[in-house]
Design a protein that fits this description.
With 450 residues, the chain is α+β, with helices and mostly antiparallel strands. It is built from 16 helices and eleven strands. The strands form four sheets. A four-stranded mixed beta sheet has the order 1-2-7-4. Helix 8 crosses helix 10. The longest helix has 32 residues. The protein starts with 15 loop residues before the first helix and ends with a strand. The structure holds protoporphyrin IX containing FE (HEM). The site of protoporphyrin IX containing FE has 23 residues, from helix 10 and helix 16. Protoporphyrin IX containing FE binds next to helix 10 and helix 16.
Length: 450
């Protein structure tokens, strides 16, 4: 049984100061051993109480049954504002409903059969790029996976492909953004000065925007002047969207915010999951063989992927062990009682797929990589109830089917063309900032199959 790396839990007597500095590395580093099985945790920081519900009925209450009482907090909005402004991910209530009515129709372009040819072109380009690399050395897969995932969503939004320079700029700028935004949020949580973190976050966000801002500007101008909304893609549907009550279109800034979020959500999470899946496959050659036997060598089609159970299980298990969004934060707006505790307005709730999906009360051998658990009847209930990499309730991910299909196409194609193995030596270290990434990168050996 293979158990991939995860941070060693803190000693139970770790001081608040130690926890503060550990939190610098991200959310998953501040857990104790019993955090995985607790019903609900509590963290008290100056001026705010943070609760960590880890029992499924509580999680359902917050994300589904009484979700209106637990909106997304101001802290999340502030952390992501430099990048995505007030877009669909961070707003609440009526504002979210209005944005949902305007933005969700654009997801018609992510429907599986519509998106499949676009994905295939981007994956062919990925295979070409790998073929041009020096395969005698381990390859760092993180930027490769960012490039292919960003290219797929870029083509789906704008109908043009993302060049290597743009992909590299996005990879590096988002890495810096994560290093800036997450400690910034911790300082804010502890009510401490931000020490220029916000300015730096804005600078990295501007670099990411510079890749697509000119495209949006040009298409917006063409639409306003000539009524030409351009090719059939996400941007066109957003240009043509109208506010459900006022009938107004998106302003240029609104458009930039929504596109930035769809672009960010549509590639960074997928890239994180793909990089972890590559790591797990490289450590488990028997899984590569099983996938290869299942899908054969013919070009992958929509139907082959639909029936590729082993491949699907590997990706689902990757998302269980390494959920790209490893925690969701909500705020408490009304006095409420949970587990006989009085919880006051202004408190924060942190729902963590990282903890829930690694809780031994939900899954046996929770830290082990066991893709077969997704077809084990004894774990079927856990796989439905305690598995939430895409969230739960009305704010659940809109792109989950798209993400699953793209991941299966990327991973299946790579397994068809290459054998992967993991070089001896340093293991990747998961750190959870905006998304879950390896702090030291993920390096994999590729050898072309005969
Ligand atoms: C493996 C890949 C992905 C993962 C793990 C993921 C995860 C998530 C999660 C956990 C949420 C909800 C967070 C919360 O409740 O606070 C979310 C929301 C969202 N995701 Fe994804 N996502 C992925 C890929 C995508 C893709 C490819 C797209 C677009 C094509 C997308 C679009 C969205 C949107 C629009 C929302 C906001 C929904 C709303 O609040 O109305 N995601 N995602």
């Amino acid at each position: 049984m293979f158990t991939p790396p995860f941070p060693a839990p803190l000693e139970s007597n770790a001081s608040p100061l130690r926890r503060f500095f550990t939190s610098w590395k991200g959310w998953i580093h501040v857990h104790f051993k019993n955090s995985y099985t607790m019903k609900m945790g509590e963290i008290h920081v100056p001026k705010v109480n943070v609760y960590v519900p880890n029992e499924l009925p509580l999680v359902n209450e917050i994300l589904e049954d009484r979700q209106r009482n637990f909106p997304k907090p101001e802290l999340l909005r502030e952390m992501l504002a430099p990048l995505v402004g007030d877009s669909i991910f961070t707003v609440n209530g009526k504002q979210w409903e209005e944005q949902r009515d305007m933005v969700y129709p654009a997801f018609a372009h992510t429907r599986m059969k519509v998106a499949f040819p676009v994905m295939q072109e981007a994956v062919d380009d990925l295979v070409g790029r790998i073929g041009e690399m020096d395969l005698s050395q381990p390859i760092k897969v993180d930027p490769l996976m960012t490039h292919v995932a960003a290219d797929i969503i870029f083509r789906t939004i704008f109908s043009v492909k993302l060049d290597a320079e743009g992909a590299s700029r996005i990879y590096h700028a988002f890495h810096k953004f994560q290093l800036t935004a997450q400690p910034g949020a911790i300082l804010r949580l502890y009510n401490l000065p931000m020490f220029g973190f916000l300015g730096r976050a804005r600078r990295w966000a501007r670099q990411i925007h510079s890749t697509f801002r000119p495209i949006i500007q040009a298409r917006y101008d063409a639409y306003c002047k000539e009524g030409d909304a351009g090719p059939s893609d996400i941007l066109r549907t957003l240009l043509e969207a109208r506010h459900p009550e006022t009938g107004e279109p998106f302003s240029l800034q609104d458009l930039i915010n929504q596109v930035s979020f769809i672009f960010l959500a549509g590639h960074e999470t997928s890239a994180s999951a793909l990089a972890w899946a590559m790591y797990l496959l490289a450590e488990c050659p028997e899984q590569q063989d099983a996938i290869h036997a299942e899908i054969g060598d013919a070009p992958l089609t929509f139907d082959t992927l639909k029936n590729a159970e082993t491949l699907r299980n590997v990706f689902q298990e990757t998302l269980r062990l390494y959920p790209p969004v490893s925690f969701f934060v909500r705020s408490v707006v009304h006095q409420t009682e949970m587990r006989k505790k009085q919880i006051s307005p202004g408190s924060l709730m942190v729902v963590s797929p990282w903890l829930i999906q690694r809780n031994s009360n939900n899954f046996p051998c929770p830290h082990a990589f066991q893709p077969e658990r997704f077809i084990d009847p004894d774990q079927a209930d856990a796989c439905r109830q305690a598995y939430l990499p895409f969230g739960k309730g009305p704010r659940k991910c809109t792109g989950s089917a798209f993400a699953n299909q793209e991941a299966m196409l990327v991973l299946g194609t790579i397994v068809q063309k290459f054998r992967l193995d993991y070089p001896t030596g340093q293991k990747p270290e998961p750190v959870s900032r905006v998304t879950l990434r390896s702090s030291n990168g993920i390096f994999v050996n590729f050898s072309p199959r005969a």
